[in-house]
Write a structure and sequence with these properties.
Blueprint (H helix, E strand, L loop, with lengths): L13 H10 L11 H32 L26 E3 L4 E6 L1 H9 L6 E6 L5 E6 L9 E4 L4 E6 L5 E4 L5 E5 L3 E6 L5 E3 L2
Length: 199
């Protein structure tokens, strides 16, 4: 069967009017078929995907901004332990993160780590809130005027300096309270110590 509506318009663009009428479904108006609804659907999908991408990326940016001075953190050495969980409230910690960090150790294990302190490191330990111990080996020198900052270091505990330079132990105001000589170890009263000037 042939199309009965083959009339053409006498005005300009008559051929376009005919083509437009032929593309439309019965009724003569655009009732949902054709190109425009498909474009709208694509635009809605693109908008939804954009919102989803922004919402996924936003937490990562927020984590970077909320973190402590992550840019100062020295890279871990090849022999460092796997990433440790954040310390519990009251647990000792050092920032920037030392080259080696071991947590949840027995007193004997932490004593052995400090006693076997690798060359060119400062090794310290302190007791955690749950009675276990954390041990640290500091290796990377920080820029002048920056120090390793201690949290919850208390009591008198042995530390070993396996570097060929002395280590300064500082109060909160950066004044020196104690030191550990090169290639030596000693018992340190950690209560007044807030910072370590490694080298």
């Amino acid at each position: 069967m042939t199309r009965s509506s083959t009339t053409t318009s006498t005005g300009t663009g008559g051929g376009r009017d005919l083509a437009a009428r032929q593309d439309r479904p019965a009724g003569g108006t655009n009732s949902g078929g054709g190109v425009r609804p498909a474009r709208r659907l694509i635009a809605v999908l693109v908008a939804l995907l954009s919102v989803f991408a922004v919402s996924v990326a936003a937490p990562a940016v927020a984590d970077q901004r909320a973190g402590s001075p992550a840019a100062v953190t020295a890279p871990a050495s090849a022999d460092s332990s796997p990433a440790q969980a954040a310390p519990l409230k009251g647990d000792p910690s050092i920032w920037p993160k030392p080259a080696i960090v071991e947590t949840n150790l027995s007193a004997t294990q932490s004593e052995q780590m400090v006693g076997d302190c690798p060359l060119y490191h400062l090794c310290v330990r302190n007791q955690e809130a749950d009675g276990l111990w954390s041990a640290y080996a500091l290796y990377y020198c920080l820029p002048a005027g920056q120090y390793y900052e201690l949290t919850n270091f208390t009591g008198t505990v042995y530390a070993q300096n396996s570097q060929n330079v002395a280590v300064r132990l500082l109060r909160a105001d950066n004044s020196q309270v104690d030191s550990i000589g090169a290639l030596t170890g000693k018992n340190v009263n950690w209560n007044p110590v807030w910072k370590i000037d490694l080298c």
